[in-house]
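Note to self: keep these together.
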Amino acid sequence: MRIVMATQNPHKVREFAEIFGGRVELAPLPSGLPKAPETGETFLENARQKALFYAAHVEDPVLADDSGLVVPVLGGEPGVRSARYAGEGADDRANIDKLIRALRSKGVREAEAWFACALVVARKDRVIMEVEARVDGLVHDEPRGDGGFGYDPLFSPRGESRRFAEMSAEEKHRFSHRARAVRELLARLPAPDATEWV
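Structure:
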């Protein structure tokens, strides 16, 4: 089965492809499509918006994710604005720097946090499936590691001293919010010839 991911971020497509392990053929969005709205107040609302928006532009089913880091001591920031925390078009470094400043302004070196992931699969004008998952851990005020992307240098999952950015892809997939969501999605995904896809 071929599914189009609602992103042109090659890091994200590669990470999802690794997690899917060949059970689904993933393709990035075609270039030139307009940007989907992301005006929801939750990860699930944003994923649903993106999935339905792009499903109207491509023939194959669309998989959209919305994921991010939630830090309760910061009032839930960066939350649904994780990718845009330091402003529209901000890169990972700018977002990380802003988060570090926010933590230090509260006088904390590390704080409880979680990564959340919502996945929505849509075809044409219909949602086929929705799943959500999260991984709890700590966010730190100093980055470590060279792997991963986003806030991975700042986050260690519960029971681990290493950050996501210090783990191999296989190690990270044992813990990550995306891997948990994909495993649930795969367990519930209709067969390629099921009527849900029509």
